[in-house]
Design goal:
Structural class: alpha/beta
Order of helices and strands: HEHHEHEHEHEHEHEHEEHHEEE
Distance between the termini: 50 Å
Number of domains: 2
CATH architecture of the largest domain: 3-Layer(aba) Sandwich
CATH superfamily of the largest domain: Periplasmic binding protein-like II
CATH class of the largest domain: Alpha Beta
Number of helices: 11
Largest sheet: 10 strands, mixed
Number of strands: 12
Length: 267
């Protein structure tokens, strides 16, 4: 009888284990701290244990292309649309947004605080040749930065030693900028949650071009039959629902909201 009860207990424990879903997410999302809030709630409400692979957007999409993850959460619209158009993702589902900001030395040697646009701010940095740290990792933030330089009539590949491409995630890049007392483009959430600000300060914000949308992409099972489509669909339903809205909008650091929920409910 004891052995039978032990067997039943083992079977019950196995059944009670959470279903696993592997999701590639950006370092900026992870560095914001929001995942620490969302993942326990997701497991409680859906029974899904979300295992994160924290990489840049470019690497996250490559993981989806190779079928190494079930879903992706990234922030680079053109790259996402190309991923879906190529048949690797089933669709795009916008979940939340924040914005990019430019931080730099508190003394602002390039005088970007008074710039009218993000492009103007970058032109001032280039003209002053003050140290600027680039993630240089094909992440969504890096792609946005390169697009901004282009809109400013600048080519990053032609810059001198003041332009420092570090090939690292958002947290590591911010640490480098802090150590060098350099300018850097970052998402607002990572900046607010960053604990090693040193003499850096937020110097430029508010240009509409700095809008930063985060999007969920379930990997296409027609490309990779082994992906957990059912769990990806349940997670998508949760991420577009009321509980997610309350947690995302309610997540704050020092009284400041880090993200705004803008997902449309599934029909």
């Amino acid at each position: 009888m004891i052995r039978l009860l032990s067997l039943i207990a083992c079977l019950w424990a196995g059944m009670a284990q959470a279903e696993v879903l592997r999701m590639a997410v950006t370092t900026s999302f992870h560095n914001s701290g929001l995942s620490d809030v969302l993942l326990p709630a997701i497991e409680k409400d859906t029974g899904i244990e979300v295992q994160l692979l924290v990489v840049g957007t470019g690497q996250a999409l490559r993981l989806g292309e190779s079928g190494d993850v079930d879903a992706i959460l990234v922030h680079s619209k053109a790259a996402e649309e190309a991923f879906v158009a190529a048949g690797f993702g089933r669709h795009r589902r916008e979940i939340m947004y924040n914005d990019f900001v430019i931080v730099g030395p508190e003394g602002d040697p390039a005088a970007i605080a008074g710039a009218g646009t993000a492009a103007d701010a970058l032109r001032l940095i280039a003209a002053s040749q003050t140290d600027f740290v680039s993630r240089g990792d094909e992440s969504g933030t890096h792609k946005k930065e390169i697009a901004l330089w282009s809109s400013a009539g600048q080519k990053a590949e032609e810059f001198g030693s003041w332009y420092r491409a570090v090939g690292a995630g958002m947290g590591a890049s911010l640490n480098t900028a802090s150590g060098l007392n350099a300018y850097i483009l970052t998402d607002r959430a990572s900046w607010l949650n960053f604990g090693n600000k040193g003499d850096l300060a937020l110097l430029f914000e508010g240009d509409p071009v700095l809008f930063n949308q985060y999007t969920y992409l379930p990997v296409n099972p027609e490309r990779h039959a082994h992906v957990n489509q059912a769990a990806a669909e349940r997670l998508e339903a949760w991420l577009t629902g009321e509980d997610a809205r309350q947690l995302i909008n309610g997540y704050r650091i020092d009284g400041q909201a880090l993200f705004v929920f803008n997902a449309q409910p599934l029909k």
